[in-house]
Backbone:
């Protein structure tokens, strides 16, 4: 592409500051590599910041090596897209319907499914800072979506919001200060993550219109 002067959306440049490794369709090898790179600080004395990306429906293809990487204490970041059934036209084989369960249930793994770009920024920066620490640590799994989401739905600069995001949960809609708020009578809590957050907010508004907070 470079020789023919064809524009590319991603411009890779060799540098002492980083390296890109392309493994193709080989999820098992990807997780074995993340394990090795994530343990380099303890085994080789050189701390690395490995970030692996793959097609989320195919996490299961390398699940044995993925669990091995986590259980070994390797420090790495896994970014997988798309979440859920947003690839419906491609058929059932391309739907990541169980990977959320893998992320939540695997010990030694921090799992996030953020719908907003600011959340992704905070989570990535915190994870990269954690990767720099000595000793074995946690893997971080970011399950993202290709569905366009209105970023104006994000609560903004509320005090303590960053800590709540990193802690795994926060309130977008909070009716606790409303005069008609009666927890035992007319209150329903709606929990959501990832691409369906806008739908959950729409459901909250529909309930509000019926007198349910």
Residues:
């Amino acid at each position: 592409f470079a020789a023919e002067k064809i524009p590319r959306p991603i411009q890779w440049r060799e540098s002492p500051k980083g390296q890109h490794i392309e493994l193709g369709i080989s999820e098992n090898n990807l997780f074995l590599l993340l394990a090795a790179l994530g343990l380099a600080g303890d085994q080789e004395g050189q701390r690395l910041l490995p970030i692996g990306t793959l097609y989320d429906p195919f996490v299961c293809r390398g699940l044995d090596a993925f669990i091995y990487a986590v259980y070994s204490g390797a420090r790495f970041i896994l970014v997988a897209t798309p979440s859920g059934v947003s690839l419906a036209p491609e058929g059932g084989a391309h739907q990541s319907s169980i990977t959320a369960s893998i992320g939540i249930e695997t010990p030694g793994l921090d799992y996030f499914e953020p719908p907003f770009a600011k959340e992704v920024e905070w989570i990535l920066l915190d994870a990269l800072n954690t990767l720099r620490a000595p000793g074995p640590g946690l893997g971080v799994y970011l399950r993202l979506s290709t569905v366009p989401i209105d970023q104006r739905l994000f609560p903004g600069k509320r005090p303590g919001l960053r800590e709540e995001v990193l802690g795994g949960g926060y309130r977008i809609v909070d009716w606790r200060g409303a005069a008609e708020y009666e927890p035992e009578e007319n209150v329903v809590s709606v929990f959501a993550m990832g691409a369906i957050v806008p739908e959950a907010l729409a459901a909250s508004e529909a309930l509000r219109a019926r007198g349910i907070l």
